[in-house]
TrEMBL record:
Transmembrane segments: none annotated. InterPro entries: Ankyrin_rpt, Ankyrin_rpt-contain_sf, Dendritic_Spine_Reg/Scaffold. The keyword DNA repair does not apply. It comes from Lasiosphaeria ovina. This is Ankyrin repeat domain-containing protein. The lineage of its organism: Eukaryota, Fungi, Dikarya, Ascomycota, Pezizomycotina. Signal peptide: none annotated. Coiled coil: none annotated. ANK repeats lie at residues 20-52. PROSITE patterns: ANK_REP_REGION (PS50297), ANK_REPEAT (PS50088).
Length: 80
């Protein structure tokens, strides 16, 4: 399980889906927030994790208009 920690030290599951099947990364990608995408990737969110509909954040970013910065962040995620 990928996890980050809140300021109080409690673990946060970065891959947890909400009732609509989206992770925090999925939401950040879909609504065009590159600064949030960057923070979630640094915390360990998986850019290739598919949601309950089989759509990965990278795929969602490629579908969106004016999301080039987000696409680049996702494509570079995990590269050493």
């Amino acid at each position: 399980m990928l996890a980050a920690h809140r300021h109080d030290g409690a673990a946060v599951d970065l891959e947890r889906e909400d009732s609509s099947g989206r992770t925090a990364l999925s939401w950040a990608v879909e609504y065009g927030h590159p600064e949030v995408v960057r923070a979630l990737l640094r915390a360990g969110a998986d850019p290739d994790a598919e949601n309950s509909k089989g759509i990965a954040p990278k795929t969602a970013a490629l579908r969106g208009l004016k999301r080039t910065e987000i696409v680049e962040l996702l494509q570079n995620a995990g590269k050493g």
